[in-house]
């Protein structure tokens, strides 16, 4: 059983995709004499790959469960 549901995995994936968009719009910026750096883009992309794999794994697992059902047929006389 997965540590999270498909919905949770998709939520995390979407959050990391949004983070990537935010970071790519400006990695660093300066306000007055202060310089601010956003999160590490490499780490964000690693998380995106992780969550994509988790979503895929849960989806495949769900499909296998649906396919591997055993049906019992009892002939009627």
The proportion of residues in beta strands is 5-15%
Order of helical and strand elements: HEEH
Straight-line N-to-C gap:
42 Å
Computed structural class: mainly alpha
Tertiary shape: rod-shaped
What's the total helix number?
2
pLDDT average, as an integer?
A: 85
Task: Indicate the percent of residues in helices.
Answer: 55-70%
CA radius of gyration is 22 Å
Largest beta-sheet details = 2 strands, antiparallel
Q: Could you name the ranges where pLDDT drops below 50 across 5 or more consecutive residues?
A: none
Descriptive overview:
It is a single chain. By secondary structure, the protein is mainly alpha-helical. It has one domain. 60% of the residues lie in helices and 10% in strands. It is built from two helices and two strands; from the N terminus they run αββα. It has a two-stranded antiparallel ribbon. Helix 1 runs antiparallel to helix 2. It is rod-shaped, with a radius of gyration of 22 Å.
Question: What characteristics describe this protein?
Answer:
77 residues; two-stranded antiparallel sheet; rod-shaped; mainly alpha
Outline:
With 77 residues, this protein is mainly α. It has two helices and two strands. The mean pLDDT is 85.
Please describe the topology of this protein:
Elements: H1 6-24, E1 28-31, E2 34-37, H2 41-67
Antiparallel strand pairs: 1-2
């Amino acid at each position: 059983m997965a540590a999270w549901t498909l919905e949770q995995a998709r939520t995390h994936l979407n959050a990391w995709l949004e983070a990537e968009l935010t970071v790519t719009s400006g990695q660093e910026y300066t306000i007055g004499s202060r310089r601010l750096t956003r999160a590490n883009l490499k780490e964000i992309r690693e998380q995106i790959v992780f969550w994509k794999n988790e979503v895929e794994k849960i989806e495949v697992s769900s499909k296998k469960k649906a396919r591997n059902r055993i049906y019992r047929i009892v002939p009627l006389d």
